[in-house]
Specification:
The structure holds 2 protein chains of 2 kinds.
Chain A: H1 5-11, H2 17-32, E1 38-40, E2 43-46, H3 51-65, E3 74-77, H4 94-110, E4 134-135, H5 138-146, H6 157-166, E5 168-170, E6 182-186, H7 193-206, E7 210-214, H8 221-234, E8 239-242, E9 250-254, H9 256-266, E10 274-277, H10 284-293, E11 302-306, H11 309-318, H12 320-326, E12 329-332, E13 350-353, H13 356-364, E14 369-372, H14 375-382
Parallel strand pairs in A: 2-3, 2-4, 6-7, 6-9, 7-8, 10-11, 10-13, 11-12, 13-14
Antiparallel strand pairs in A: 1-5
Helix pairs in contact in A: 1-2, 2-6, 3-4, 5-8, 7-8, 7-9, 10-12
Chain B: E1 4-7, E2 11-17, H1 24-27, E3 51-56, H2 63-72, E4 79-84, H3 87-96, E5 100-102, H4 105-110, E6 116-119
Parallel strand pairs in B: 2-3, 3-4, 4-5
Antiparallel strand pairs in B: 1-5, 2-6
Chain lengths: ~375, ~120
């Protein structure tokens, strides 16, 4: 990768340690993806905020980095480990809270906007088509490329952080207009958001950088988000296009049999002790939709709903939050269904969710059993 | 060998080879360096001080922090080599200063689990 004279100086440490670290990261990611240069980006979304996932080493790294580093572009941040408003209900230990607060402070010092959300694309208007951004958080990167018509690499926590500090990112494949080399034919009839989650998980496994999907028209937001999140979980694919006439050289089918295979890999039980909704976090439209679906009904079990703080406040103003709470839901902000210390083996063995991404991390990281169902079925089975 | 170098460094060590991609966030204990994903072919193995060879990284962008944590906890591989290097592995190794190389498919095939090898 070619660097400008100024970028070279930064890499050699002439502009301070923080920029040197950032350029060292960008040089490696640029080389790894055969990028020929760095390009300016206009928005960074950074992951690596939850103490549960980044640990002591991550917390210390950010505390040191934030003494000198400043973000040069708009930088939004991923969820952290808990919701400050309800943290006392979950019995987290002091160490966790102290380390999480340190991480929050470090990002604030560097100039991050305290969104604590994995759906930055629902918090801000999307910039113009083709705008270069740098999104870590795989569901957000795939959403930006596939639905938002933006350009981003499937950034890592560190590459997005480096882009926030430098305002630049490698000009790698996903930023260019290459067409997908694989096309997946959707053969499952009557699909819901869980079906699209299963499709995404399958696609992530078989596809390379980007993939075409045929036989699918006009997905609603819930299905789109489910597809993006599960695709990001299982593979390295960073973009999909809905295209019935793709000239991709490789073609595969996603039929009932393939769908069942993915379902059997992730679904381990037929019912849960707890229901969680919101991986990715729910946006305003989904909160509205859910409150209508729950009209006159109430959950028979504990149900946690995850949404960004900014969305919860709007939902409260518009009345949806109150309706959801009347139906027995607990609203949680600033954190996420997966990898939060709020849903662990200590309190629960089996979780019901409609999220494939949630299922993957419950199963593999938290060691919980998972019951996968579409939202309509969750409401049918779990409310009265 | 004409390896493409992503993160520089000279190392000698024993190959720990996987035929499956690795999601660093979901499947490795960052304190012990042990693979915890029961479906993974390296399940139960410790990656510390090995030359870790695998096809590619997958999944969460936060896996980069896991790689950095493995190094801070002294349980990181001595080096990694993949057929396809994703941004998570590249940036994690860059920050943790773990030598990282890209292998051609022939080179990947020729690497045998348990063999002693020098890279870089």
């Amino acid at each position: 990768m070619e660097l400008t004279k100024d970028e070279e100086k930064s890499l050699n440490g002439e502009h301070g340690e923080a920029l040197q670290t950032a350029y060292r990261i960008l040089s490696a990611t640029g080389e790894a993806t055969d990028a020929e240069k760095l390009v300016p980006i206009h928005w960074a979304h950074v992951s690596g905020v939850n103490y549960n996932t980044i640990g002591d080493a991550g917390e210390e790294f950010l505390a040191t980095l934030s003494k000198n580093a400043k973000f040069r572009v708009r930088t939004t941040v991923n969820p952290m480990g808990y919701d400050k408003d309800s943290v006392e209900k979950f019995g987290l230990d002091e160490n966790f809270i102290q380390k999480q607060e340190s991480i929050r402070e470090s990002y604030k010092r560097m100039g991050a906007i305290p969104t604590f959300s994995c759906i930055p694309y629902e918090l801000y208007d999307m910039p113009g088509e083709g705008t270069q951004v740098a999104f870590a958080e795989t569901n957000a990167a795939i959403y930006a490329n596939s639905i938002g018509k933006l350009k981003t690499n499937k950034e890592s926590a560190f590459s997005a952080l480096a882009s926030a500090i430098t305002g630049k990112s490698p000009y790698s494949d996903l930023r260019k207009d290459d067409s997908p080399t694989m096309s997946i034919a959707m053969k499952v009839s009557d699909p819901n958001e869980l079906t699209f989650g299963l499709l995404g998980y399958f696609a992530g496994k078989v596809a390379d950088k980007s993939v075409a999907i045929s036989g699918v028209k006009n997905l609603d937001k819930r299905c789109n988000k489910s597809l993006c999140a599960s695709m990001g979980t299982s593979g390295s694919c960073g973009k999909f296009v809905l295209d019935d006439n793709s000239n991709a050289s490789e073609k595969v089918d996603f039929d009932e049999k393939e769908m069942q295979k993915v379902y059997d890999e992730l679904n381990t039980t037929e019912s849960g002790d707890l229901i969680t909704l919101g991986s990715p976090q729910l946006g305003l439209e989904e909160m509205n939709d859910l409150s209508s679906m729950l009209k006159g009904r109430a959950f028979k079990k504990r149900c946690l709903i995850f949404c960004p703080r900014a969305i919860q406040e709007q939902a409260r103003h518009l009345g949806y939050a109150g309706q959801l709470e009347s139906a027995g839901c607990e609203l949680m902000s600033d954190c996420c269904t997966c990898l939060t210390p709020l849903v662990t083996k200590k309190d629960v063995d089996k979780v019901t969710t409609n999220s494939i991404k949630g299922a993957y991390y419950y199963k593999n990281s938290s060691g919980l059993d998972v019951n996968l169902k579409p939202l309509s079925k969750i409401i049918e089975d779990e409310t009265s | 060998m004409t390896l493409k170098t992503i993160v520089r460094g000279k190392v000698t060590g024993k190959i720990l080879k996987s035929s499956q991609p690795i999601n660093f966030l979901g499947s490795i204990d960052k304190k012990t360096g042990e693979i915890t994903d029961q479906k993974h072919d390296l399940f139960g193995k410790k990656i510390a001080d090995s030359i870790l060879i695998f096809p590619n990284g997958i999944g969460s962008s936060v896996g980069a922090y896991t790689i950095y944590s493995l190094k801070s906890n002294n349980v990181a591989p001595a080096a990694m080599a993949c057929q396809k290097v994703d941004l998570t592995v590249a940036s994690g190794c860059a920050l943790a200063n773990i030598p990282l190389f890209i292998l051609s498919s022939d080179e990947y095939e020729n690497m045998k689990d348990g063999d002693e090898i020098s890279l870089g």
